[in-house]
Amino acid sequence: MRICGIKLTHDGAVALVEDGQLVFCLEQEKRDNNRRYQAIDHLESVVSALAEHGLDPRDVDQFVIDGWDGDLESQFQVLSGAGPITLKGAPYVERHAEGLLTSLDGSGLMLGGRLFSYRSYPHVTGHVTSAYCTSPFAKTEQPAFCLVWDGCIFPRLYYVERRGARFLECLFPVIGHVYAAAGHHFGPYKRAGRGDWDLGVAGKLMAYIALGSVDEDIVAVFQELYQERFAGDTELASHYRADINSAEPLLARVHDFFEASALRLRDQAPEDVLASFHHFLERLLVSEMATAVERHAHLSGARNLCIAGGCGLNIKWNSALREAGLFDAVWVPPFPNDSGSAIGAACSAMVVQDGFVPLDWSVYSGPALLDGQLPSGWNSEPCSMRKLASILASNKPVIFLTGRAELGPRALGGRSILAAATSPEMKDYLNDVKLREHFRPVAPICLEDRAPEIFSPGTPDPYMLFDHQTRAEWRDKVPAVVHLDGSARLQTISRTSEHKVAELLIEYEKLTGIPLLCNTSANHHGRGFFPGAAAACRWGQIEHIWSDGVLLTKIPETELSPVDGALTLV
Predict the structure, then answer these.
(1) Which residues are within 8 A (CB) of 230 and not within 5 positions of it... i.e. 6 or more apart?
(2) What are the tens digits of pLDDT across the range 514-524?
């Protein structure tokens, strides 16, 4: 059974699941240096994704389109061949508590000149199925709660077991976009108007709040306005909650909330305001989750939690939920945001057929490296891991490209810029070449068995989804990966992993005694990962590029000769 999941809107992607195994997931932003959050505007992208894996649309048994905005259904305007077509989809949220797996059946999906039927499940359904089916709980057939907190919805709690899933309740009336909206009203990303929405602001604020301090007086202002405008028994709050299924009015009310906050907090430092708002939301999330778990204590099974939706990328909230003692285990997939929605669409159809069974998957299921002609001005030679480790030990960063790209928004060693963490200047250098603000952190990638020695808790974290503190005795040893508040967005990898980055870390550890490196995404500013070495060479900001055993070194301009021609990396 081949199921093709399609996410058409932002974070567009195509995924294929065959007999319970993820074959691939190709995110649009990781193809051809596309912009971050790229949508699928032309259905030829689906045909091309299948063709790259030797498949024709006729080889697919079922197509599934991820649902989107709408009370009863959604609509998508896309191109197919030479002209536009309109496709219908399921709504953002299921229509009733037992309706998570209710599909809208559609026709008119034009692929390769042929028409195909398809199904569409609500957008939140894909979040629930992708989170649970990739979790360790699915493998052991344990039930789990699933928290879905996405941009346009209140945090929604579901209960999942092998035979089905159902909606339990909304935890509190705040949409996920509230975090990014805070950044549009305070701090370095403040805007004069309400338009020009930036999906990337939420992640940047996680870094910025380390500049500030939590002030309980500021928290009290947010608490008061929350009751008045969102949660309380007031006319304003009732009007806000009446628009629960309409994204634009909800977002307008959020902007009203922050404009009222700004009037009360005009004399406060923006970094303190944002740090306090983060703390207010974190406290609210943990408190309401605790109440909900107690309310549903009659549900059988272990206390497990899956987290999905864009808010699942907030490592501090994930850690707060894990540390609250409410659950035996917490799982966040590497693609909790919409980058996992194509996988979720395919998983939804799998679940309808087989129940909530585990998906056989690897995080390195993205696009393969593209071959291509390299620009002139680069030398090429074979390079062992030991030699590459020595280059890194000499404090020179390296673009590291290997195998298939990682899924989700974070570089996990397949499309990374790696560097020694021993110099405090390295973080600023990497932020400079990537056009990032200097308060932004650079993540460590560390051998799993040594992580507890360096970080607290230092528990396995293969996808950079929890918060860790750098232990005091290591902060001066690896300053480039220590954030302003002492934290680190850690990625761990087992030394028995077959991935090339593990082999490199072992060689680097042998040379230096240090089991970690700086790790940041190999990409242009505002773009997805480099699709291959040629794109990294054209960027030209890092002088060493390692691509599956080949080292490319930029020739200094003073050494270039007129006969230096282009190379082809194959």
Answers:
(1) 172, 173, 174, 237, 240, 241, 253, 257
(2) 999 999 999 98
CB of 420 closer than 8 Å to CB of 381: no
Instruction: Collect all residues with Cβ–Cβ distance below 8 Å to 212 and sequence separation of at least 6.
Output: 269, 270, 271, 272, 273, 274, 275, 276
The C-alpha atoms of residue 150 and residue 308 are separated, in whole angstroms, by 8
Question: Are 66 and 89 spatial neighbours (Cβ–Cβ below 8 Å)?
Answer: yes
38 by DSSP, 3-state: which? coil
How far apart CA 74 and CA 120 sit, in angstroms, is 10
Residue 395's closest CA among 487, 511, 303? 511
Instruction: Average the pLDDT over 265-275 and give the result.
Output: 97
- As a dihedral over the C-alpha atoms of residue 44, residue 49, residue 52, residue 54, rounded to 10 degrees, the angle is -90
So what's the pLDDT on residue 239? 86
CB contact set of 297 (below 8 Å; sequence gap of 6+)? none
Single-letter amino acid code for the residue at 281 = L
pTM beyond 0.85: the answer is yes
Record the tokens describing residue 84, joined without a space.
């536009």
Which pLDDT belongs to residue 537? 96
pLDDT tens-digit map of 278-315: 999 999 999 999 999 999 999 977 899 999 999 999 99
